[in-house]
Each structure stands twice: as structure tokens, then as C-alpha cells.
Amino acid sequence: MHSVKVGYLASAVSRALCSSGIYCREFIKVPACYRVHRSVSQTRYCRTAATPEETVIRIPRSMQRRVETVKQTRGQNKINTIKAGKLLIQSNNPELNQSVGFTLGKFEQLRLCSKGWKHNKSFGDYFTINNIKAVAPFVAENEDVEKKASVTFNNLHICKELVEALDSANITHPTTVQLQTIPKVMKGHNVLCAAETGSGKTLSYLLPVLHRLQADKESEMHAAESAQKTRAVVLVPSRELAEQVAAVSRTLCDPLGLVTSTVGGGRGVGHIKTVFKRGHPDILVATPGALVKALRRRCADLSELSFFVVDEADTMFDPSFSDMLESILLHTRIARDPKETRGPGHKAQLLVVGATFPGGVGEVLSQVTDLGSMVVIKSKMLHFLMPHVKQTFLKVKGEDKVLELHQALKLLHQEKGGGAALVFCNKSATVNWLGYSLDELGVRHARLQGEMPAAVRAGIFSSFQKPGLVDVLICTDIASRGLDTSGVRLVVNYDSPESHTDYIHRAGRVGRAGGVVDGEVLTFVTHPWDVELVQTIETAARRRTSLPGMESEIREPKPKEVEAAE
Ligand SMILES: Nc1ncnc2c1ncn2[C@@H]1O[C@H](COP(=O)(O)OP(=O)(O)OP(=O)(O)O)[C@@H](O)[C@H]1O
């Protein structure tokens, strides 16, 4: 004998009523095999049928009304998201596609492709956020400006040696962020520059810094003694990034006769001493740990500093680095006014740079420096998904991920004309394991993860950056921050990133200024706990908003803000 609860039975009944179209106003008959447990309160819904074979359940009027309402609203909620033209969202369920031409109303309900992705039945589902722009906004916006004024680096009053060095690297027109940042830095302001990944932030601080150092060097006012001290410090979170920034700086410094050195963690004090034995460099690119050691051992001297640059600022103001940052700042004197940056006893300009400033960074920043003295340059597309990069999300079982990855790499190589690929894992152990699996499949690759000894890590990334040496790099998030990967065509999130910030930085390894134009991102979604992040990304794509939790105002108190549209 079966028995069911009335609540279950009632909902089954209402569903039957909705779907069959046979609607019994007063009651329905249920075979005797479905005997009903009745509590006192439930008796008003049920009564025993006339014959012992059947039980009759009365449907209360309120429920009848609810069923009617659901029936009516269901049809209405089906918004037609598909219009003529290109698709913004494309999925294996065409009903959930969304066209570029469709704009969702503020109060309209979203229907997400990833809605049921916590369920096991969803394995194999996918959706793609198509690229709706051919070029990055930070280049396209600049093209508009170019039409009006044809702005080149010459127009920014940078010394001719630097412009020539840029020319020989085929960099002629500044990106939007460079157009906005360079003049402000040249005027002596402290600047906070928040612009999307790959928009050319490195040059936006290096060019005015080198220009000023060169001008100071030539100036008679510049005392011989201070010329022997470090004039600019660039602080970055990883050794790989330090090497990269130093390499760009060296290229630009060559014609100017300025010296760039780098100190990074993991190589011991001996290495730091060796760097400073050669004398104080004009520009020092350092990780916080290494610089703290250099200052403690009195190797480095920041007393004559003209520029203090903090790159990847949100990481640097993170609790894991902020103590070191504070102790470094104790050795510097930061200017509060452009006037303090010139002449004898000058103070240093503070430049804070980053692609993500999640909520709360402004508060942390204000503890370290006087935010009121800074000019904020914030790009329009900060914290938005890149409109020029195709981004696919695939719900896939853990055991199928290696094969899916192999397939994606094969496709890249055979059908898309090749290019480099970056594969992100969340843990060092996964990097190693995946490496062995790809070895077995005959895929040539390199690995980069934080637990590798410094000597092994050194050079892996730079060999990946050189075209033709290694096409696939399996790595953890240490390769997601700031590293320039212009030759990369495919980013694979083998493990779903843990936060929006991580997603932005990983995805930002493609679609960079001067890089491959048709970059793609592929994200594997396996665990139920990955799904929420994917849903918020899909929501942001459909509503065309920035990613949630990243809407920080960047600072308190209110700044003298320079809008991107300026
Ligand atoms: N004006 C320009 N024109 C063409 N290419 C440029 C220009 N400025 C910079 N680039 C190139 O763009 C690439 C990305 O620059 P950069 O690494 O400075 O970006 P970023 O904004 O610092 O990115 P991330 O946030 O990832 O650190 C580099 O290869 C650089 O050479």
C-alpha cells in the first residue's frame, strides 16, 4: 500500500491540471492505492470518496487561483531574447540564446544557461559569451581620438629617445590609459590608475618616469651625489613580473644611459648584495620581500626617490603584502602636492596601478597613503568582461577535463592556425599532475607554479614568451597577474577560478594591446561550488554590467577624479 503527503499530492495535482488542460473545478478522484495521511488541519482539503475504491481531494479556491496565475505568468515570462544579428550568448539550448541587439529591462527576469549547473544532469552543457567587438575598447576609443587629433607619443612631450625606442617596437599611438595617465604624471601628481588588463599600464607609468629621470640627469640642478642613488622604485608582486617590467624598462633605458636592476624573492640575500654591489640603479624593480631585505641590510637607499610605483595594487595592498609595503613606505617621503616633487629636498611621486580594485581596496589604500592627494584615472571598462574576447563555459566531469583540454589544444593547433595557450590550475599539485597527463598524450608544454625552486622557475616564463619555443604553459595564478602574454591565443581555466578578480586577470592574458586579436577563454566548470561564480559572470554578460563585488569607488574621501571620457 502506498501513501503520500497531501502537500506533494496537491502539487502533483496542480501540475497535472496545468499540463493536461483537463481541469476539474471542484475535486479530483485519486485511486485508493494513494491513501492520504490526514492531519486535523488537512481534513478540509480531503474527504473520503463515496466508494471505498477512491479518495476525493477538494482543491481549495486559493490554490485554484494560484494555478491559474502560474499558467498565465509562465507564458508572459518567456521573453524573446533573440533578434536579428549576431548572438551575444550562445548555448546548447537555443531558447536561452541572447542577441547583441537585445537589451534586458532592469526588472526583467533573467533565464541563465547555467541555472541548473549544480545538478549532475547538466554535464555536457555549455554557453559562449561571443566577442562583440573586433578590437579592444582601450584601442578603439583611442582610434576615435586619433581621428580628431591624431595623437602620437610625440604629442605627449616625451623625449625623442623614448619615442624612437617605442617606434622601433612598432608602438606609435598611445592607448586610452596612456593618453590620460602620462600627462598627469608629468605634471607631478600622485596618480591612481585603474584600467583593464592589457591596456598598456606599464608604459603609462614607465614613460613619464624615464622621461623625468632623463630630464633630471641632464639638468644642472641635479647634484652628483643624488645621481648615485635609486630614483625610481617599481614594486610588483612576483619575480616573473619584476623581470618582465625590468626588461621593458631596460629596452627604453638603453638610449638614455639609465640603469635598471631587479631584485626578486627566493634567491637569498647573496643575490641582493650582488645586485647592489654594481652600484645603485636608477630604476629598481622589486618584489616587496626582496626590497624589505635590501633595506634592512642597507643595500638599497630610497632617500632620493622621485617615483614610487606600486603595480598590481590590489595584491600589494592585500594583508599578505601590506605590512611589507608599509615598512617600505617608512623609508620614503611621498609628496602631497606636485610642488613638493621638484627642487632640492624633493619628495617622491606615488603611482598606484592595477586592473582590479575590488570593494575595500580604497579603505586599505587610505591607511597607507593620503588618498586625497591622488588623481584617479579609471577606465570605463574597468571590471567589465572583455567585449573583444570570446569566452566559453563548459560543464564537464572532472575525469573528462584532460580529454577536453587535449581537444581544445588540438583544435587551436590544427584549425585555428596555432598560437600559444595558457592553462590555469588552482593548485601546484594539479599543475604537476596535469603536466604528467599531457606528457602521456604527447603534448609539449612547460609548467610554472609557486612551489618550484627559484632556479627552476627562473626563465620558464620568458622562454614561454619567446615565440616558437613552448606553446603550452600549465600554471597557477602566479602567471595571471600582470604578465604580458601577447602571443597567447587561448586561455583555459582547467580549474574554475576562485573569484571574479582571478577570472579577470586570467582572462586578461588574451586580448591585449598589440597582441593576438582573436583570443579565446575556455572555462571548465565541474563542482557545484564553481557554479555561482559562473552564474554571476553570465548575469553580468547578459545585463552588460561590471562583475559584482568589484564596484568599488576606489577611495575615500572623494577624489579629484579624471573621468575616462575626459
Ligand atoms: N600604445 C600601445 N600600442 C600598442 N601596443 C602597446 C601599447 N602600449 C602597450 N602595448 C603593448 O601592450 C601589451 C600589454 O601592455 P601591459 O603589459 O603594459 O598591459 P597592462 O595594462 O599592464 O596589463 P595587466 O593588467 O595584465 O598587467 C604589451 O605587449 C605592450 O607592449
Main sheet properties: 9 strands, mixed
Strand order of the largest sheet: 7-6-8-16-21-20-17-19-18
The low-confidence parts are 1-7, 17-27, 32-50, 555-566
- β-strand amount: 15-25%
Tally of DSSP helical segments: 18
Distance between the termini: 77 Å
Bound molecules: adenosine-5'-triphosphate
Offer a few descriptive terms:
single chain; 566 residues; alpha/beta; nine-stranded mixed beta sheet; 18 helices; disordered N terminus; disordered C terminus; binds adenosine-5'-triphosphate
Tell me what the structure shows.
- The chain has 566 residues and is of the alpha/beta class.
- Helix content is 36%, strand content 17%.
- It has 18 helices and 22 strands.
- It has helices spanning 6-20, 61-77, 137-149, 160-168, 176-186, 201-218, 239-253, 268-277, 288-296, 313-316, 319-329, 361-368, 401-414, 428-440, 454-457, 460-465, 500-507, 528-543; strands spanning 2-4, 27-31, 34-36, 46-48, 54-58, 87-91, 98-99, 126-129, 190-194, 232-235, 260-263, 283-286, 307-310, 349-354, 374-378, 390-395, 420-424, 446-448, 472-475, 488-493, 520-525, 560-563.
- The strands form four sheets. Strands 7-6-8-16-21-20-17-19-18 form a nine-stranded mixed beta sheet, sandwiched between helices.
- Strand 11 (260-263), helix 8 (268-277) and strand 12 form a beta-alpha-beta unit.
- The chain is globular and about 105 Å long.
- The protein binds adenosine-5'-triphosphate (ATP).
